[in-house]
Amino acid sequence: MRKLNALIAGSTGYIGIQLIKLLIKHKNVNIKYLCGNSSVGKSIYNYDKSLKSKRLPKIIKYNKKYLGDIDIIFTALPNGEAQKISKDLLKKNTLIDLAADFRLNKSKDYQKWYKKKHNAVENIKKSIYALPEISKNKVKKFKIISCPGCYPTSVLLPLVPLFLKKTINKNNIIIDSKSGYSGAGRNVHEIYKNKNLYESLKAYGVGFHRHNSEIEQELKKYTKDNINLTFTPHLSPMFRGILSTIYLELKPKFSITKINHILKKYYESSKFIKIMKMNTYLSTNEVINTNNCFISVCKTRYKNKIIILSVIDNLIKGGAGQAVQNMNIKFNFNIFNGLK
To answer: Which one, 98, 170, 234, 328, has the greatest CB density within 10 A?
Structure first.
């Protein structure tokens, strides 16, 4: 049986831990190196007790010399770090990035939204923005695979098929998303220590969240028109999960029934996307600890307006699970490996 040697850089964050939990169950992966900075020399179970009985290497500092032993590198690092590693890649290496370093197609957009210069511009064209159900087998042609952000994942999965069929008015799209606080990383407790994180709901990034750029970039691939969307994210008093509520205005001749049919048809062969019965009210609880995305099309009081509900687990379908799914496609592994 073919096994890939893997290096995980950023192994102690919420996404890194989740990635380890998926990969230790993957039949085709051997975790050879776990990398960190402040955690060097420690065991990974110091960050998650459920990993204590697993035979995993101790955490070391990343060094490009390790890449000679490695087939695949997962980077769950602060923005900018995967750019550095991308310059070290050998011919045999594939890089799967879970941060934002290769999500935007233009370096000037990266600088605009992330307030820092892109230091691996030459590798942007060598990368692919890989939402698995949309990009599919295209990932096989690339050495650098960029996984979408968690919010964009929950938004693009329902919207891309509708843009392809030109069903909605692109001038009035409203997206209201609520995420578990794990989406803000381990430092969330320090950042919001005075905000009663566990018992309150908090809006942030209103009107200018970085994921605006990602959502607009991907939707513009399917239209020549301008897109007018309003996206507001919120931190919720739960550890994991995302619920996105998307308000749409339909073009003439399209009904809620047709919209539902378009989504069902597009995802009929997808293993992790489920289009629910119309007007189903969704809960994040239905997808927690899975790589699934559930989507429900709901009616409103107005014939030309609908609301779409989309739920995912931000750490799996919006993060580590998506990375594993892309790897499975890239290397022709069973799509469910590591993801059952």
So the answer is: 98
Domain count, the chain: 2
CA pair distance 111, 128, nearest whole angstrom: 19
Strands 202-203 and 273-275: unpaired
- The angle at the Cα of 112, spanning 185 to 214, to the nearest 5 degrees, equals 60
Q: Tell me the C-alpha distance between 254 and 50, whole Å.
A: 49
Domain with 183, as residue range(s), is 151-314
Minimal CA–CA distance to 272: which of 136, 127, 95, 94? 136
Q: Does the pLDDT of residue 135 top 90, yes or no?
A: yes
pLDDT at 207: 85
The answer to whether residues 185 and 297 belong to one domain is yes
Q: Which of 307, 306, 282 is nearest to 294 (CA)?
A: 282
CATH number of the domain to which 89 belongs? 3.40.50.720
pLDDT per residue as tens digits for the range 4-51: 999 999 999 999 999 999 999 999 999 999 999 888 989 999 999 999
Active site residues: 150
For the CA atoms of 326, 336, 91, 128, what is the dihedral angle to 10 degrees? -10
Residue with tokens 């380890």: 20
Pairing of strands 305-312, 242-249: antiparallel
- The encoded tokens of residue 59 equal 């955490």
From the centroid of its chain, how far is CA 234?
17
To the nearest whole number, what is the mean pLDDT of the chain?
A: 94
What pLDDT, on a 0 to 100 scale, did the predictor assign at position 197? 74
Mean pLDDT (whole number) for 64-69: 96
Q: Contact at 8 Å (CB) between 101 and 120?
A: yes
| Residue 72: Cβ within 10 Å count | 22
Mark residue 128 as left, alpha or beta (left: phi above 0; alpha: psi -120 to 50; beta: remaining). beta
Cβ-contact 240, 185 below 8 angstroms: no
Please indicate, yes or no, whether residues 166 and 300 belong to a single structural domain of this protein: yes
Give mean pLDDT, residues 170-196.
81
